[in-house]
Amino acid sequence: MRKNLLHIWHNELSYEIREIVGVAYKIRSFWREIFWENIWDPVAKWEQVPVWIKDIVREALNHDEVYGYCPTRWLDKTREYIASKNPKITKDNILFFNWLWDAINKIYRSLAFDSRVIGPNPAYSTHSSAEAAHAGTSHITYSLDPKNNWNPDLEELENKVKYNPNIVAILVINPDNPTGAVFSREVLESIVDIAKRYNLFLVFDEIYEKLTYEEADRVLLSDIIWDVPGISMKWISKDLPWPGSRCGWIEVYNEEKDENFKQYIASILSSKMLEVCSTTLPQYVLPKLYESENYKISLQERILKYKTRADLAEKILGWMQEVTLIKPKWAFYMSITFNMENVNTTHIPNIKEYDIEKYVTDFLSGVTRFDKKFCYYLLAKTGVCTVPLSWFNSTFEWFRVTLLEEDEQKFIFILEKIKEFILEFKK
Ligand SMILES: Cc1ncc(COP(=O)(O)O)c(C=O)c1O
User: Is the beta carbon of 124 within 6 A of some atom in ligand 1?
Assistant: First the structure.
């Protein structure tokens, strides 16, 4: 090519959760059964999509408008419905997106290049990659501390904000992926306070808000934001088992409190207009789905199931010297951190099948992170497909499993496999 084609941020784009799938497919082709523990997909995990959801969607298909374009901001009725649940907003403070990457990307891309959003570390990579891509340099982070129940280091956050005038916003993911943390009102109020004192806006990714094990833990940005400008992200792919709907929205708070923030939100709307509109069908059925009695019942049932799975995982793995397991406070991910002082990082697992052994060894040549090697060898030896978490912009050596497995016996079987494999690395 006469000029380099690559954008400065091409290295920032990776998604290990899906990249490991390519390797799993290859290993499956050598006749190894795969146990998918890498991603939240209830359908792939055999969770039946409830009949009441299918009935509502089926009925909607009789209406011609679900096949058409809809307004850029989304269907009026749906926005009115959402606004009716939250006294802090009107329908004009709601803007729909095709999926959260669409929202995440537009929120960062619409900022001036040198205006930065500080986010948590470990970071959910869709945010950290998109923010880094917008700035053309690494994402700026504040630490979540595993020794303090994954709470944010507020002193570090404030210092970074104080000494870097380019930071214009704080990103909070609450409930948090991948740590499983849910932050207390006190912690969240301290973050709002920092934003207020340094004249920042807030971005809260709250897509898991309805999935906390305890209802009392649910503190939303709209409960505590006071008069600080902010954006909350919502999404129907998690509390409804319909991730393929690719349908989410943002709620904007206190837009009128700052002229510059208001213009910024207007610019996000303008960039949405270039796409005309988001998917019509999921937004059309959204009020009906949320208002259904079945929704509340099935949500409770699912939360209970995930909580039971978390208890089980703690029983099987929680005692081990080689790892620390901080039980999640919400839904379906669980992270397991290696206690590096108790782990033999040079151990190479023995894989009997020559083809698999050769493939994975070649694949891992040049890889230095222990958690990555652990997860790929675990996959090669046992078929259990997890996600190495150092990829979450993180310095820890750790990995993530889901709590989704429908069949309890199979879940125990998977955990036992993981346990045996961890023991191989005993020092
Ligand atoms: C915090 C957070 N935000 C956004 C998303 C994006 O959701 P989806 O995978 O449905 O696109 C995820 C997905 O896991 C997430 O954990």
Answer: yes
